[in-house]
Amino acid sequence: MDDYEEQIYDILDRQLLPKSLEVRDISGGCGSMFSISIESDKFRGLSTIKQHRLVNTILKDEISKWHGLQLKTKKTE
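Structure tokens predicted for DEKNAAC101386 (77 residues):
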């Protein structure tokens, strides 16, 4: 992971305490589009839309700089 991917990873890791987390820059290295896959107990009882809103709220300052985000969320089984 590059520094910016690690920064995004650390933000999500602190806030959501994920069981699994993957952050990838899919913009070719310019940091404008990311793919994030996250599994967390914090998603229990939340619909997929609410899970995505939670992640978007946590990353709102970063997302405002991006062109796109591919997001996969899953509650821990």
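The helical segments are 3-16, 48-58, 60-63.
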